[in-house]
């Protein structure tokens, strides 16, 4: 299920036709269903005011929206946009299936003057998820709204907007939403948002579904994502360390962290393979091939490591 919150403020961007400036943000409701997407449009001060004044908020279904529910936090005083109008919105997007992970926010996208850049689209263009259209076109400019969007009105394919600009955020979002295991489980298994995920699912068996990137990011996306990574490292006073890309990069990186010398990668690979052999039952279910074949591959120098070898390295004592 998708949850979204929408708010509108006047005069955000000049449109080709009539302009309606809308702001959208996302925050999670108390109890959500898997694949829910939360969007709430509000500033911190607005959210604090709402929390104090509305102890028990009540969502209401938007007529003709396909069960999209909305909670108006502030009524707008402007016009209601019509199909064909261009609107500009700000939003916070959260994914309930990842414990409320915030997958995107327009407030993170800044222009040359360091002001947040709104998401602009034309109502009725069918380029955005239906739930967001339903939320925006039933609002007045200047309003503030929190919206819950069901899966049927959320992302139906990977080309629908809004799309996180960061490649890894897009991959994480879409591999979660379109995960075959989650889809097979249906929408009846709800999660209590106030409780840790493991409390609800720790004893529930589920088949492992390997996640594979659909395509390699193009040069522009890869460059932008790399620059974003460098900025994040700088925030924590860290620096990038280049590891030789010869197929042993995971093991070289581990060797550098454990022994302060990437040349010990063969020793790390040997220890990881030994861990995989000795504790086969812990890892076999996560390997998408015959386990003996997998071990034989991982013994070879130059064979890329994966999430299983990384976990085995974390479980192994290198004392």
A few lines on this structure:
This is peptidylprolyl isomerase. The chain is 33% helix and 17% strand.
Quick tags:
alpha+beta, disordered N terminus, Chitinase A, domain 3, 7-stranded antiparallel β-sheet, 319 residues, Cathepsin B, Chain A
Q: How would you name the oligomeric state of the polypeptide chains in this document?
A: single chain
Largest sheet: 7 strands, antiparallel
Strand element count: 13
Mean model confidence by pLDDT: 71
Question: Quick one: CATH class of the largest domain?
Answer: Alpha Beta
Q: What's the gyration radius in Å?
A: 23 Å
Separate helix tally: 11
CATH architectural designation of the largest domain: Roll
**Number of folding domains?**
2
* CATH level 3 topology of the largest domain: Chitinase A, domain 3
Question: Could you name the ranges where pLDDT drops below 50 across 5 or more consecutive residues?
Answer: 1-5, 9-16, 18-55, 182-208
Overall, the morphology is elongated
Supply the helix-strand structural class: alpha+beta
The run of helices and strands is: EEEEEHEEEEEEHEHHEHHHHHHH
Strand content: 15-25%
Task: Note the topology.
Blueprint: E1 2-3, E2 5-8, E3 19-25, E4 31-33, E5 37-40, H1 44-53, E6 60-61, E7 69-74, E8 86-89, E9 92-95, E10 101-105, E11 119-122, H2 130-137, E12 144-149, H3 167-177, H4 180-185, E13 190-192, H5 197-201, H6 219-235, H7 249-259, H8 265-278, H9 280-283, H10 291-299, H11 307-315
Parallel strand pairs: 3-8
Antiparallel strand pairs: 1-12, 2-3, 4-13, 5-9, 5-12, 6-7, 7-12, 8-11, 9-10
GO molecular function: peptidyl-prolyl cis-trans isomerase activity
Domain OTU: 238-319
Keywords: Isomerase, Rotamase
């Amino acid at each position: 299920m998708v949850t979204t919150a929408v708010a509108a403020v006047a005069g955000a961007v000049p449109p080709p036709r009539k302009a309606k400036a809308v702001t959208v943000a996302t925050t999670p409701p108390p109890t959500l269903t898997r694949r829910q997407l939360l969007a709430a449009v509000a500033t911190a001060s607005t959210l604090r005011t709402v929390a104090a004044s509305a102890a028990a908020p009540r969502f209401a279904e938007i007529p003709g929206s396909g069960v999209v529910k909305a909670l108006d936090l502030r009524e707008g005083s402007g016009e209601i946009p019509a199909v064909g109008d261009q609107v500009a919105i700000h939003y916070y997007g959260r994914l309930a299936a990842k414990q409320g992970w915030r997958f995107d926010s327009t407030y993170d996208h800044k222009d040359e003057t360091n002001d947040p850049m709104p998401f602009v689209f034309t109502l009725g263009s069918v380029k955005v998820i239906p739930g967001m259209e339903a939320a925006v076109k039933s609002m007045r400019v200047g309003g503030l709204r929190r919206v819950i969007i069901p899966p049927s009105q959320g992302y139906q394919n990977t080309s629908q907007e809004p799309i996180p600009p960061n490649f890894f955020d897009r991959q994480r979002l879409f591999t979660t939403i379109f995960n075959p295991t989650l889809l097979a489980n249906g929408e009846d298994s709800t999660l209590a948002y106030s409780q840790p995920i493991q409390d609800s699912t720790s004893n529930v068996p589920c088949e492992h579904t390997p996640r594979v990137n659909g395509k390699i990011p193009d040069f522009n996306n890869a460059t932008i994502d790399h620059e974003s990574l460098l900025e994040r490292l700088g925030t924590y006073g860290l620096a990038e360390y280049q590891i030789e890309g010869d197929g042993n990069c995971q093991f070289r990186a581990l060797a550098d962290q454990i022994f302060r010398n990437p040349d010990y990668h063969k020793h790390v690979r040997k220890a990881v393979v030994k861990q995989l052999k000795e504790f086969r039952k812990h890892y076999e279910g996560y390997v998408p091939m015959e386990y003996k074949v997998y071990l034989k591959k991982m013994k070879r120098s130059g064979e890329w490591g994966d999430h299983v070898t990384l976990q085995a390295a974390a479980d192994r004592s290198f004392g």
